[in-house]
Every structure is written in structure tokens, then in C-alpha cells.
Amino acid sequence: MEFPYAPQGYPSVVEGKAAIADYIRSYPDNIKLREITVDNVLRAGETRIIEFHVASTAVTTDRDFVMHYVSIIEVANDLIETYRDYWNPLVALEAMGGVDTMNRMGQVDE
Q1: pTM of the predicted model as reported, rounded to 2 decimal places
Q2: SS3 for 102?
């Protein structure tokens, strides 16, 4: 997985099943997903471009927010080879109380 707009302290690349599982392990402790809506899917050969948005609630602040994503997924032999995720991390950080709060929660390495 690649995160071209990862905030400082977060990885821009996570490789392998175990590393991805570790990366998302605390997700449910911080964000409650309410609804995922796919807005558009484009296919060009083995590449998929998916536009979607996710309505969520930040667990620590109880603030609702909506994240918009564009994901570019490259597939080979029906397996994902690359998943490039474009989103604005500041939306989630703000809903969770800002970067200072995330630093206190240990989510961002300084």
C-alpha cells in the first residue's frame, strides 16, 4: 500500500500482509465506520481507479466526518499488487482532535 499524502510520522509505504494488518490494527479503536459509498469505478486493463467516500465517527471526540478517497489499484493474476490511496489525512486528524491529540495518543511519531 502506498500513501502519497501520509502526514509526518506515518509511513508512505506499507508492504506485506503482516505489515498492513499491523498498520490498520488500531483503526477500530480510533474510527467507527458508518457508511462506505462507491462513487465511481474505472478500469483500464489491470488497473482500477475507485472513487469513494466514507462517513465515519472519530471515537475519541465523537465527531462525524466524511473522507473522500481515490484509490488506484494494480492487479495481476487476480491479486492486488499495488494499492495507492489518495486522501486528505487532515480531515481525520482534525476530527480526532488535531495533530497534538494524535501525538498524545501515540498515533504519530515525532
Answers
A1: 0.78
A2: helix
Q: Which amino acid is at 17?
A: K
Q: Which residue has the cell 509511513?
A: 11
Q: Mean pLDDT across the stretch 29-54?
A: 96
Radius of gyration over alpha carbons of the chain, in Å? 15
| Contact yes or no for 88/68 (Cβ under 8 A) | yes
Per the structure block, which three cell numbers stand in for 97? Answer: 482532535
Domains of the chain are 17-98 (3.10.450.50)
Q: Check: CB of residue 7 under 8 Å from CB of residue 99.
A: yes
Q: Are 31 and 56 in contact (CB under 8 A)?
A: yes
